[in-house]
Design brief:
The complex is a heterodimer. Chain A is of the alpha+beta class. Chain A is built from 6 helices and 11 strands. The chains are: A alpha+beta, B alpha+beta.
Chain lengths: ~210, ~800
């Protein structure tokens, strides 16, 4: 589920990259999420799990179609696809497919709700769930940090950080309570992606081919 | 009125009052379909069938709500469940899993994960704990940690690196695939569009007094909810109580309609021909006796009266009215100089013979293994005896010594006399009639098609049935009528048999004999299998350390597996028992699979898409204590057996009828004359059903008994008066009036919405009409010197 949220944050950050022509504020970043026609980007994810000596690395493409469809298609090390929509998460790889009963996992539900609020640019709702801090650096660099305000989210997630420069976001970092950290870097971002009906049907469906 | 007459009338009135009082006080109508579940050749399966029909499964309704989207439907389901829960008849109304479902299920099952893991532990544990197995498990854990669904296993990965618990959950999920999802905390059907509420009632679904108000309450609660939502919601329901209430309503409406129209028709007929309120009232005396005695006898013997019996019984009006018609008609048109008692004497043999043969036909049904049919036999027998007795003993003292016949009545008799005289002069016409009947038999009998389909026998409305099927399909995709049953003296013995059933079904699925199955084994195994898992798991004391070492070699940090090492080496908890699950949030998952059969426990497995029933049956037969139970097949086999038995009974009824007629006449020709027309009419009726393309069932066959008895009555009356033209024309009027009354009674049943009642109505209407038409054949075979 954290992966889902990471993906959600990833989209949010990429969206914000497009519209940050004005001074960087939390509201400006979240406001940039509204009215986006669609998005596509390449990603490289590095999961540093406490239980593993070496990180797990995956690469692929990510797609977002407003208002609430996200597809993460992994190309390496093995093909897989993950879909998120308002109802939950579906996943498919060479071993089969799985649809998660999202309401059976309260933390997962909060992640999905948070995701929807980010897409909606709903600063107030996000502030109810997270303490949000913006740290500006030299040369237009900035770091947007989300810290869960309370359980059950805070039992699992330590912080979520989006880092970028100017209008470009290049890193998403999710730190978990157990010491696990996931860092995702983005490239070849197209924040003006418009999907045809065929693409919507093909890209946002469970098919790893 | 003599003292003797007064005594008889007083006794009669007292008997009627006592019967009516008892019937009114104890009247209870039932529409329980299990009443029509026959005793099988396998009493255990029949018992199971009955048990299932009366278990909590049948007391559970499913409400399926639709809305603009799944979220709206889920919200509506939650609100409807809250409303419905307030009704006193509702034991439980559940629209979603408990809020702590996942956590409670985890706490309950996680400690037992190793005990429940394998079906062949002596083979599978060594394989898992081998170096290759451990390396493979480490690779799998690493793969799963890299997936977007990693959050599902992160919690348990350190204490359960072998992923025993996720494996259990996945097995459980696979076993219940196609079932319910959860959206917004509410159950959503497999189609993703309909929200679902389960409502369990306190009383039997066949208890109309409690179920009807509840159904009305649910509908009103939904209507209010829907009005608040702007009419965008939809509700479909599934529940045996809906069939029971609808059947009761339909049966009552049918009975009311039949009773009113039959009564009106008889009133009109009597007023037209007799023009005497006194005679009209007299005609209803035997009717009142017949129906009251039928109800009272059924209630006395069975405690209640089934709707089908009552509906069938109400048509007895058409049979019971025959006796007063014969008596009053003869007494009006050709009164005996000795008064009413003289008239009775003259027709007494025909009356007695008719009543006794009718009784013989119905009494035969009492020897069946069909509770519903036994009740029907009791109702009919009591009704016939009572109406005959009332006609025989009460009508003469209540009749005028010599009533004045009405002109129209006389004219009708004259016309009938001329018709019969013509037939007597030209027997060719009768031969033509006989040949036509034979042709009908030859053509139609070949087209008769029998069905043993239960749906053709029951009281179920088609629209309700299709709605019910739609709702059930959304919730469970297993076949509802096919089960594998493991029966044991206690929970654990039943589970032990169920373990073997699971194994056999697994093999059957791999062999393509069935598509899928849903088993309790996905949740719990027998204590014996759980113990075997522990023994196999702990066979190597160093296994846990080898696991950690193997995982370290695959890139895991060994220091994270301290909890696993401690857990693996600890003594296991006591085996998980059914009772542990029943008292938990998982109780709802257990309930459909466990039934109590007297002092035994049955664990049920549901199957789907059985492609090779005989292979599957053979597999299950090899397991002691397990049975393959195909409810449709069981019913079909038993109904077929019962149909043959009923056919035998009809045959015996015919023989008894011929024997009685022969005992009366002691000559072959009058026996033939009295017996052949009803036999031909009954055969021609069956042929007519075949020719009309009506698929026949048990109730058509039972109705043929009525046809036989009516036809025999008509033939005997004509035969008895064959040598006396004046007597013959009066008997002919009696026969026609009886025929009209019977067709009016039964004909209305042909329009019933209930297939079972339609079957009775169609058969008897056609049969009685044919009996009437073919009755003059008695004259063809009648001896010239008269029957006696």
């Amino acid at each position: 589920m954290r992966t889902a949220f990471r993906a959600a944050c990833l989209v949010s950050s990429l969206l914000s990259a497009r519209a940050l022509a004005t001074p960087v504020t939390v509201d400006a970043i979240l406001a940039a999420f509204r009215g986006v026609p669609g998005l596509e980007a390449h990603f490289r994810e590095e999961k540093r799990l406490a239980v593993l000596v070496a990180p797990l690395i995956s690469e692929g493409q990510i797609y977002f179609a407003p208002p609430n469809r996200l597809a993460k298609r992994v190309a390496t090390p093995a093909k897989s696809a993950m879909l998120i929509d308002g109802n939950g998460i579906s996943f498919q790889d060479e071993h089969g497919s799985q649809t998660l009963l999202i309401d059976t996992y309260p933390v997962a539900r909060l992640f999905i709700d948070g995701f929807m609020q980010i897409l909606a640019g709903n600063t107030e709702a996000l502030r109810r769930l997270y303490e949000i801090a913006l740290e500006a650096g030299p040369d237009g660099a900035w770091d947007l940090r989300f810290k869960p305000k309370g359980p059950p989210l805070s039992d699992v997630v330590e912080t979520i950080e989006l880092a970028g420069r100017g209008i470009l976001i290049d890193t998403l970092r999710v730190s978990e309570r157990g010491g696990d950290v996931t860092v995702t870097r983005f490239s070849a971002v197209d924040p003006s992606r418009r999907f045809t009906a065929d693409e919507l049907h093909r890209l946002f469906a469970l098919d790893t081919r | 009125v003599s003292r003797h007459d007064r005594l008889v009338l007083t006794l009669g009135a007292t008997a009627l009052l006592v019967m009516a009082g008892y019937a009114a006080h104890s009247f209870r109508i039932s529409t329980d379909i299990s009443h029509f579940i026959p005793d099988s050749d396998d009493p255990r399966l029949a018992s199971l069938s009955r048990q299932l029909a009366q278990s909590s499964l049948t007391r559970t309704m499913i409400l399926s709500l639709s809305g603009p989207d799944a979220h709206a439907a889920a919200q509506a389901a939650q609100r409807l469940a809250e409303s419905v829960r307030s009704h006193p008849e509702v034991l439980r109304a559940v629209s979603g899993p408990p809020g702590d479902f996942a956590e409670t299920a985890y706490r309950l099952l996680f400690p037992h994960r190793y005990q429940l893991l394998f079906d062949a532990p002596e083979r599978e544990w060594p394989a898992l704990l081998s170096d290759e197995g451990i390396a493979s498990a480490a690779t799998e854990l690493k793969r799963q940690l890299g997936l977007p669904t990693a959050f599902l296993i992160e919690r348990v990965s350190r204490t359960d690196p072998l992923l025993a618990f996720p494996t259990l959950l996945r097995r459980l999920e696979t076993e219940n695939s196609g079932g319910l999802q959860v959206v917004d905390g509410q159950f959503i059907a497999g189609d993703g569009a309909h929200a679902v509420v389960f409502v369990e009632t306190r009383h039997s679904p066949f208890d109309g007094a409690t179920q009807k108000p509840l159904l009305g309450f649910i509908r009103r609660a939904f209507d209010e909810l829907n009005a608040r939502q702007g009419g965008r919601l939809g509700l479909e329901e599934s529940g045996l109580n809906r069939f029971a209430v609808a059947s009761e309503d339909t049966v009552k409406a049918d009975i009311k309609r039949i009773s009113i129209v039959s009564t009106l028709a008889i009133v009109l007929l009597f007023l037209l021909l007799f023009r005497s309120p006194r005679i009209l009232l007299l005609a209803f005396v035997p009717l009142a006796f017949g129906v009251t005695a039928g109800i009272a006898a059924s209630i006395a013997l069975f405690g209640e009266i089934h709707g089908l019996t009552l509906a069938f019984g109400s048509t007895l009006i058409g049979v019971c009215v025959d006796y007063p018609i014969h008596f009053l008609n003869h007494h009006s048109l050709r009164p005996s100089p000795d008064g009413p008692y003289g008239t009775r004497r003259r027709i007494s043999w025909a009356l007695i013979l008719g009543a006794v043969t009718t009784l013989a036909g119905f009494a035969g049904l009492a020897w069946t293994s069909f509770p519903g049919m036994r009740e029907l036999a009791v109702f009919a027998s009591a009704g016939i005896v009572a109406s005959f007795a009332a006609t025989y003993w009460l009508l003469p003292p209540l009749s005028l010594p010599s009533p004045r016949p009405v002109a129209l009545h006389q004219a009708f008799a004259e016309r009938m006399g001329r018709l019969l005289a013509t037939l007597g002069r030209r027997p060719r016409w009768l031969i033509v009639l006989y040949l036509l009947a034979l042709v009908l038999c030859a053509v139609g009998l070949r087209r008769v098609r029998w069905t043993a389909d239960l749906s053709k026998l029951d009281l179920i409305d088609e629209n309700l049935r299709t709605e019910d099927e739609r709702v059930r399909d959304r919730v469970s995709r297993m076949d509802s009528s096919r089960l594998i049953v493991a029966v044991g003296a206690d929970d654990d013995l039943a589970l032990a048999i169920n373990d073997r059933v699971y194994d056999a079904l697994h093999q059957a699925r791999n062999a393509g004999e069935l598509e899928a199955f849903s088993s309790l084994h996905g949740l719990i195994a027998s204590a014996e299998l759980q113990r075997r898992n522990v023994l196999a798991m702990q066979a190597d004391p160093q296994a846990a350390h080898r696991v950690v070492a193997g995982f370290a070699a695959a890139g895991f940090r060994p220091e994270f597996f301290g909890d696993f090492l401690a857990d693996f080496s600890q003594p296991p908890p006591a085996p998980l028992r059914i009772a542990d699950l029943q008292g938990s949030v998982l109780g709802d998952m257990v309930r459909p699979f466990v039934a109590r059969l007297g002092d035994q426990i049955a664990v049920v497995t549901l199957v789907k898409g059985v492609r090779d029933p005989s292979a599957l049956r053979d597999r299950i037969a090899a397991i002691s204590g397990a049975s393959y139970f195909d409810q449709s097949e069981l019913f079909a086999r038993t109904y077929e057996r019962y149909r043959r038995r009923t056919l035998d009974l009809v045959g015996i009824g015919i023989l008894v009828m011929f024997a009685m007629v022969f005992l009366k006449y002691r000559r072959r020709r009058p026996t033939l004359a009295a017996g052949m027309p009803p036999l031909l009419a009954a055969t021609a009726t069956l042929a007519a059903l075949g020719a009309l393309g009506i698929t026949t069932n048990l109730l058509h066959l039972v109705s043929l008994l009525l046809v036989l008895s009516a036809g025999e009555d008509y033939a005997v009356f004509l035969l008895e008066s064959a040598t006396d033209a004046a007597y013959l024309k009066v008997s002919a009027v009696s026969v026609v009036l009886c025929g009209i009354a019977t067709v009016l009674g039964f004909g209305l049943l042909s329009f019933s919405r209930i297939p079972a009642l339609r079957a009775i109505g169609v058969t008897t209407s056609i049969g009685v009409a044919l009996s009437l038409l073919l009755a003059p054949l008695a004259l063809l075979w009648a001896p010239r010197g008269g029957a006696t």
